[in-house]
Amino acid sequence: MCGIFGIVGHGEASNLTYLGLHALQHRGQESAGIVASDGHILRAHRQMGLVADIFTAPVIDGLPGDAAIGHVRYSTAGGSQLKNAQPLFVAWAGGQFSIAHNGNIVNAAELKASLEADGALFQSDADTEVVMHLLARSKQPTFEAKLVESLRKVEGAYSILLLTEDKLIAVRDPHGFRPLVLGKMKEGAFVVASETTALDLIEAEVVRELEPGELIVIENGVLRASMPFKPAPRLGRCIFEHVYFAKPDSVLFGSSVYEVRKRLGMQLAREQPAPDADLVIAVPDSGVPAAIGFSQTSGIPYDVGLIRSHYVGRTFIEPQQSIRHFGVKLKLSAVRSVLKGKRVVVVDDSIVRGTTSRKIVKMLKAAGAVSVHLRISSPPTQWPCYYGIDTPSRTELIAASHSTEEIAKYVTADSLGYLSLEGLGAAVEDPKRSTYCTACFSGQYLTEKLSRDSDAKLSA
Ligand code: AMP
User: Fold this and answer.
1) Is there a single domain that holds both residue 292 and residue 169?
2) pTM recorded for the entire structure
3) Comparing C-alpha atoms, which of 20, 53, 12, 58 is closest to residue 36?
């Protein structure tokens, strides 16, 4: 769970990177950073916290140059500390370079152990640092060839941006787990970002998504593209990006996130109807498009029964269970006049631990709802993600060990219905789900390491 943004060929590179990161803030709220190059020297600023709080005018003024990369982070590998904030930045025999990574490298522990045995000194716990060490040790003649050799040793999910003194490189792993899109500004600058919403904000035109396994180099205003990796046996675009993670105004993997989410809700209404309900409401913000879809297909009116405070972040931001528990109440409040005496369908995108749903059902009933029918616009989340989405271990995933009836009882809902895996495939217009990774719902991990390593699955 991270967002990345890079730009090259613009006099206000770090300012535009700041804006791009602002548009990607939903992808990670723990730390943010920008590294800029003026053609000779790279300068970095990384800090814990939110983009708008970190990048004040003097900080941005201290990052001159016409190329920059930036990162917003939510920790998946490595703890929540400044040393793990990205972009990572090093000086080495070949000069300076910086790297910003979205994804998760599944064989990072093995690679790190062998590099350490060989004398490497790691400065962070971030899996991304492995790539830097591999690159610095490579005997290949060029930076690009060193990078390719390093990434061939890496398994897992990576959309990566690299900045050197004079070029920007962008790479997407052969499965295409995480998104990465190329854009261009009117003035000629190239932009690469996790989601199109960042390009829209700075008025850059969307050129295309990077292909899975593609590497592009932008140097002296010229873009070179290549496909240096062995293609993956099948694609593994993250279906959870569409369910929850991406911003609804983005176009991701060729589809509008908003339209996909609405279709999820429509399909959910067909699969899990609630014929006696008076009203459909959403858990804002992520449940809104699906709730509208549910309402349109079922004919049950949509209304706003829960209000989200915009002054707290996503519930998951607080890593401790005790704070998260409290956080739901801080974030959401119920509208009594809408709910009183009503039989309510409440639509959310997913249940992870069940904490949020339980609080919400209680809140709705306390506000006067006579019955609460919980509808979830994705299948039960049963498996942890090893490819960059923050999910807890199997023991904490309520659907890994409880039936739908048991979960309904735990969250005190009058009924509970999940979308089927087939329904999810239909909504992303890939009924067989052959271009998507659905591991969090199906347990089918696509990298050799995890499908081979069943112990990792069982102990996770
Ligand atoms: P829980 O209380 O653990 O069941 O969390 C469920 C809520 O968290 C849902 O409302 C989702 O919108 C949201 N959610 C699902 N997956 C994630 C994730 N990986 N990171 C942050 N929030 C999530």
Assistant:
1) no
2) 0.94
3) 12
